[in-house]
Amino acid sequence: LQCQECKQINYFTKKSKEMEGKLKLKKFCKWCRKHTVHKEGKK
Questions:
Q1: InterPro entries this protein is in (predicted)?
Q2: Which burial class, exposed, middle or buried, applies to 10 when counting CB atoms under 10 A from its CB (0-12, 13-18, 19+)?
Q3: What's the pTM?
Q4: How far is CA 15 from CA 1, 20, 21, in A?
Q5: Nearest CA to 15 among 7, 25, 5, 6?
Q6: In 3-state terms, what secondary structure has residue 8?
């Protein structure tokens, strides 16, 4: 998962094949030092 503010890749996760669209979660970014929206990026 990639932070939408600083574009750093902070988390790695798996998702099921049935899930459509990109994964979007609010997680802590150690670079921004705050909770931000993280989206699924390129593999």
A1: Ribosomal_bL33, Ribosomal_bL33_sf, Ribosomal_zn-bd
A2: middle
A3: 0.78
A4: 11, 10, 11
A5: 25
A6: coil
Q: Could you say which DSSP state residue 24 is in?
A: E
End-to-end, the C-alpha distance of the chain in Å comes to 10
Q: How many CA atoms lie within 13 A of 3 on its CB side?
A: 16
What the block records as the tokens of 22 is 């990109």
Query: pLDDT tens digits for 1-43?
Result: 999 999 999 999 988 889 888 999 999 999 999 999 999 987 6
Residue 12 is which amino acid? Answer: F
Amino acid sitting at position 35: H
